[in-house]
Each structure stands twice: as structure tokens, then as C-alpha cells.
Amino acid sequence: YNNSKKITYLPVFDEYKETEIDGEENQIIQAVSKIIELEKTDKKFREKYLKKEKQTLFLNKNTKIILEKYIERGNYILPQEIKIEDSLNNIVADISLDEIKVNTDIVKETFILEDKKIK
After folding, report:
1. Nearest CA-CA partner of 39 in 82, 79, 2
2. Taking Cα atoms as reference points, which of 68, 59, 111 lies closest to residue 87?
3. Is 117 exposed, middle or buried (CB count within 10 Å of its CB: 0-12, 13-18, 19+)?
4. What percentage of residues in the chain have a pLDDT greater than 90?
5. Which residues span the domain enclosing 53?
6. What spatial distance separates the first Cα and last Cα of the chain, rounded to whole Å?
7. What span, in angstroms and rounded, lies between the C-alpha atoms of 50 and 64?
8. Given CA atoms 54, 57, 61, 63 in this order, what sign does their dihedral have?
9. I want to staple 82 with a disulfide (CB 3.0 to 4.6 A). Which of 12, 52, 55, 95 is the partner?
10. If DSSP codes are grouped into helix, strand and coil, which group holds residue 89?
11. What is the rounded CA–CA span in Å between residue 63 and residue 89?
12. Is residue 27, in this structure, part of any structural domain at all?
């Protein structure tokens, strides 16, 4: 993901496809990025996160993220149920992650784009 675009690798065809991100998908990506950022930088958030406590955070003045439930996989604690609401408390997204598998063998270099043509 980069700004308003995403690049998807299609291994069957050995090609990359670039597409625009829609508004809802972009909000979900921003929410995930905010959770990662706070887990790294905000001591109170991290403490509640490690205790798997429900917490609400604000993406901006119009969007809030509610971490409702967590799941442990290996050495990782991951949000399992996440709600994203607008300023009027309308649910923008209700995300539930099940059957989560963590691939600990994956390396960052796997995600670096080579000089492949993007279609």
C-alpha cells in the first residue's frame, strides 16, 4: 500500500497489478497503521493492549477505532474484533479475524518490489 494505491502480486501470472484504494479500504488500512503506531509509541495504549483490554482510539476527529477482543498467536497479540465508527457512531467497518496464522519465517525482503512491470 502506498498513499491511495495498492500493488498486488499475482504469482500465477508473475505480474504486479496496481489499483486505487477505495475509501472504506483506506480507512481500514489507516486504522491498522494507527494501532501499530500506538503499540510502538504510547505506553498506556501498549499496557492495555498487552492486557488485552477493550480500548477506543481516535484515527481523527471523525473516526474512532474500538478494539473489542484480542487473540494470541505464538508470541503475538493481535486484535481479533475491531469496530470503526464515524463521529455519529455509525459503524463504518466491523472486522472480525478468525483462523489467524502467523508466518514467522517470512522476511521483509519478500515484500520489496523488484523492477517488475505494474499493469
Report:
1. 79
2. 59
3. exposed
4. 39
5. 5-111
6. 15
7. 20
8. negative
9. 95
10. coil
11. 9
12. yes
